[in-house]
Amino acid sequence: MDAFYASVEQLDNPELKGKPVAVGGSSERGVVAAASYEARKFGVRSAMASTTAKRKCPQLIFVKGRFSRYREISHQIREIFFEYTDLVEPLSLDEAYLDVTYAKKGKPSATLIAQEIRNRIFEATKLTASAGVSYNKFLAKVASDVNKPNGIFVVTPDKARDFIESLEIKKFHGIGKVTAAKLNNIGVWFGRDLKKLDRFELVRLFGKAGNYYYNICRGEDYRPVQPTRERKSLGAEQTFSKDLYLEHELEEELLNIADEVWKRAQRAMIKAKTFTLKFKYADFEQHTRSKTINGYLLSKEELLAESRKLMKSGNFNKGIRLLGLTLSNFQHEEQKQPVQLTIEF
């Protein structure tokens, strides 16, 4: 979807149409969750500090996020996807992979199906979507950004080599800013440069990810579209409007965060063995502390008690600007419990 959260806000409030909009908090500690294309022209981006965004675009309008509304529209869009294929792998509320090799409807062409789906989305929601079409996930993902907003781009097998070799490293899906900078430092700026490095050198520099980089610069990505993706972690965090120093203030915020995390865990029907406390100082120095228990966390009170222990083990000699709590190492409630097998003699 194109600037999904911001586009929904413009859809529901016509007064925002054509104006630079940011979904997020406008406070000194606020962060932009999404920006409309009008705001992006000024350099406003998601995950940017709200103060920085306001500096770049003084007329920027901040809107508080309404995630229940975004989920509602996301559900409508996924219902359209499932009309064409059961192989739908959601990445977030506004993005998904679809494998239409054996589509349930539409013409026998991934490009025509993608166009038809985009039209259906607009008819149902009045929102625009962009699509990337290719023979694997990496190429489809990168292609989806080429003609945004409201566009489609196709990378056929015969065009893949030229497309990848001329692609800037910073636009490779799976290569973040830090890795891109490291590659730039050794003279790798485009796909053709990355292709010159052998597998052993890439693994030496980047560990297991080096194998992925070696493959994608050759157009190779054999990951299937997975209709069900197992959740690896679940959490919540809070950035404070002012730095917190006092223990009772931190405990009060931790209570609110633990309450939200527990609600999310109950909705997802999961139990966790591992919990991680994240905290960020006023100078942006960040730390995490984790603990894994033998059983599973069975109540919100237990989660809060264990989280307090982790927090007390910290040396908070500087102001805290952010606290977060994450659960991982899950057991899903619908999973069957282990069964003891017996052997008869």
How would you describe the overall organization of this protein?
The chain has 13 helices and 11 strands. It is α+β, with helices and mostly antiparallel strands. Strands 8-11-9-10 form a 4-stranded antiparallel beta sheet. The protein has a 3-stranded mixed beta sheet with strand order 2-1-3. Strands 4-5 form a two-stranded antiparallel ribbon. The radius of gyration is 23 Å and the shape is globular. The N and C termini lie far apart (62 Å).
Q: Based on the structure given, which CATH architecture of the domain at 233-332 is correct?
A: 2-Layer Sandwich
Q: Provide the spatial order of strands within the biggest beta sheet.
A: 8-11-9-10
| Total beta strand runs | 11
As a percent range, the share of helical residues equals: 25-40%
Largest sheet: 4 strands, antiparallel
Choose one word for the global shape: globular
Strand content: 15-25%
Which parts are unreliable, with pLDDT below 50 for 5 consecutive residues or more? 333-339
- Quickly name the level 1 CATH class of the domain at 233-332: Alpha Beta
Q: Find the structural class using helix and strand composition.
A: alpha+beta
Here the CATH topology of the domain at 233-332 equals Dna Ligase, domain 1
Let me know the CATH homologous superfamily of the domain at 233-332.
DNA polymerase, Y-family, little finger domain
Mean pLDDT: 90
Q: How many whole angstroms does the radius of gyration measure? A: 23 Å
The span between the termini is: 62 Å
How many helical elements? Answer: 13
The topology string of helices and strands comes to HEEHHEHEEHEHEHHHHHEHEEHE
